[in-house]
Design a protein that fits this description.
Layout (H helix, E strand, L loop, with lengths): L1 E9 L6 H12 L12 E7 L5 H15 L5 E8 L3 H5 L5
Antiparallel strand pairs: 1-2, 1-3
Subunit structure: Part of the FGAM synthase complex composed of 1 PurL, 1 PurQ and 2 PurS subunits.
Subcellular location: Cytoplasm
Keywords: ATP-binding, Cytoplasm, Ligase, Nucleotide-binding, Purine biosynthesis
Length: 93
């Protein structure tokens, strides 16, 4: 099985109150050097079979019609080789 990831972020011109709240909390928690925070969504889709251009086109349709709001959000679709958790646990074979 392959994993396809859809990252959804607010468009740059859209206000991001959650990101601003995180940005305000960072210095209070002792973190410095961060000048902006944008909060988005990540969808991980486990796909059976081979990842073809047709499969990616179908996932792009999913992202546009269900996973994002194209009026206020941008999205990006990409195939993930291994998850961060798998790499950390040494399960990348």
């Amino acid at each position: 099985m392959a994993r396809v990831v859809v990252d959804v972020m607010p468009k740059p011109e859209i206000l991001d109150p959650q990101g601003k709240a995180v940005l305000g909390a960072l210095p209070r928690l002792g973190f410095s050097g961060v000048s902006d925070v944008r909060q988005g969504k990540r969808f991980e889709l486990e796909v059976e079979g081979e990842i073809t251009d047709e499969v990616l086109a179908e996932i792009d349709k999913m992202a546009e019609s269900l996973l994002s709001n194209p009026v206020i959000e941008d999205y990006e679709v990409h195939v993930e080789e291994h998850s961060v958790a798998e790499i950390a646990q040494g399960r990348t074979s």
